[in-house]
Design brief:
alpha+beta, 5-stranded antiparallel sheet, two-stranded antiparallel ribbon, 4 helices, 7 strands, globular
Length: about 120
Amino acid sequence: MRINQISLGLSLVSLIGLISCTEQTAGRICEYTPAAGQPNPLGEQASFRIREQEGNTIFTYQPDPSEMLDETIELSGRRELTYRNTDLDTARVILIQNPEHYKRLIDKESNENFAAVNESLTCR
């Protein structure tokens, strides 16, 4: 009986540890959603996403949908920019203040900067 109680206690401690690790590594996600009827400055089918993960903020730009080369082979043009040890709100400010980072991320010269995309982010 005593062994069962110890086993149950250890199981609960392990479960609580797993839950707290999940909470620490999963953060907010923001996605670019241009206003209805407005042209997408990133490209017609481009997507832009920001996520917090393990204390880092990762900006992901995908210029167009992935291309299926075969049933099991997918080619993606996705590019990512990571600000390590930086929360999402701070990373957004850093990207606004550093237009060269944004241009490197989207891999093209553009008159638009991140501020235009930042205004149309939906976060959860």
